[in-house]
Specification:
By secondary structure, the protein is α/β, with parallel strands linked by helices. The protein is built from 14 helices and eight strands. The chain has a single domain, classed as TIM Barrel (Alpha-Beta Barrel). Helix 1 crosses helix 11, helix 5 runs parallel beside helix 6 and helix 10 crosses helix 11. The chain is globular, with a radius of gyration of 27 Å. The structure holds zinc ion.
Length: 421
């Protein structure tokens, strides 16, 4: 029924009809969209999301200098992530990135990494809504993932200690090369690789991560490094926050030929929601994001796809996907594009669970292997602050050092001769 105010004119019959049509259409649309929302809510409550990448710890460092006592993580409206909206977005598990700037490489990267692990461990234990987990055998909620191999300062013992502290994944680079792996970014020129995107020490890192049961993350690495790791790793690997290069030509995204190698590795690509990697423009919408999912599904199937939002690590996100409460809108769009409930359950969580399970099964197979004692050579690490305490025999192994040793021996001989005289 049309309700009109006394001063309004009486509508013409055809106008009244069109208004009636509009009301009917609106009611139908409300009914259908309400049904779609109910369907998404039902699906996501049965299969809550495991997201592959969130830089909340970076914001805690930048905005609050990690002073957790002074903030309330339940509600932080100035950023895209808080506990209230994680619940609204049906997020049941989050890989939180442990990230320190590339500028810390060869300086205090290890200390800063430990401090980022500390703030995440505190947050994940002090808030009752979080639970710090390190294995599939527990309820998954809050996982630690190092972003950038510079955090281990080219040390396998440091890698092992990070594992002991609960870190379960590491990307081999961020935007800087390490002495042993290559970044997709050309921003930093140090440790530039020449036809060797994964050195023998890099391979030792991959092997040790396989042995430990730590997930290897290839987001941020160069395609050459990604390919070398895909050829070398015994366990499945992930791209924790990368999208499709065929849909958006950004070097942070993954080309189809690598997607196919990832499929052979039984690995996973978790689609990044950052606007720049989605549309290659300054703006994007949910439909652009869904195009990445459709394309990757066409190339390697839905059982190799996840979601790795990159919230807090990037500045622009697609319209309608601006914070952690908005994942249902993406699932709704994929439902509209005829993704099945099984496929959506897979990308929301089942695929990640399978990967983690397979990584741990490989760890169990390698249980008899001893911790690797491979050390990087001093020539590969150009760091004057690195203190080396090694037995004299090995300290003379490099050409420069052997020259020094010869010189020292000559000086000793001469001084003995002088003393004898
Ligand atoms: Zn990143």
């Amino acid at each position: 029924m049309l309700l009109l105010c006394p001063s309004c004119r009486v509508p013409h019959k055809s106008e009244a009809m069109s208004q009636t049509h509009r009301i009917i259409l609106f009611s139908l649309w409300t009914l259908i969209s309400g049904y779609a929302e109910d369907r998404v809510r039902d699906l996501m409550s049965r299969y809550p999301l495991i997201d592959g990448h969130n830089d909340l710890a970076l914001q805690l460092r930048k905005l609050y200098n990690n002073r957790l006592n002074h903030i309330n993580v339940n509600n932080m409206s100035n950023i895209a992530t808080d506990i209230t909206r994680l619940h609204a977005g049906h997020v049941q598990a989050q890989m939180f990135a442990v990230y320190v700037m590339c500028g810390a490489q060869d300086k205090d990267a290890v200390r800063l990494t430990l401090e980022q692990i500390d703030v995440l461990r505190r947050m994940c234990t002090e808030y009752k809504d979080f639970e710090l987990v390190t294995s599939l055998r527990q309820k998954i909620a809050c996982m630690l993932s190092i972003e950038g191999g510079h955090s281990i300062d080219s040390s396998l013992p440091a890698l092992r200690m990070f594992y002991q502290l609960g870190v379960r994944s590491m990307s081999l680079t961020h935007t800087c090369n390490t002495p042993w792996a290559e970044s997709s970014s050309k921003h930093h020129t140090f440790y530039q690789k020449q036809n060797n995107s994964l050195t023998s020490f890099g391979k030792a890192v991959v092997e040790e991560m396989n042995r430990l049961g730590m997930i290897i993350d290839l987001s941020h690495t160069s395609w050459g490094t990604a390919e070398a790791v895909l050829n070398h790793s015994k366990a499945p690997v992930i791209f924790s926050h990368s999208s499709s290069y065929a849909v958006c030509n950004n070097d942070r995204n993954v080309p189809d030929r690598l997607l196919k190698k990832l499929k052979n590795n039984r690995g996973l690509i978790m689609v990044n929601l950052h606007t720049d990697f989605i549309s290659c423009k300054k703006e994007a919408n949910i439909s652009h994001v869904a195009d990445h999912f459709d394309h990757i599904k066409k190339v390697i199937g839905a059982d190799s796809i996840g979601i790795g939002s990159d919230f807090e690590g990037a500045v622009r996100f697609p319209k309608g996907l601006q914070d952690v409460s908005k994942y249902p809108a993406l699932i709704g769009e994929l439902l509209r594009r005829n993704w099945t409930e099984q496929e959506l359950a897979d990308i929301l969580r089942q695929n990640f669970i399978r990967i983690f399970d397979e990584v741990e099964k490989m760890r169990d197979q390698l249980v008899w292997e001893r911790p690797s004692e491979v050390q990087i050579s001093m020539e590969e690490v150009k760091n004057p602050c690195r203190l080396v305490l090694r037995p004299p025999s090995s300290s003379c192994s490099s050409p420069n050092r052997s020259q020094l040793c010869t010189l020292l021996a000559l000086v000793l001989l001469l001084s003995n001769l002088i003393l004898l005289q």
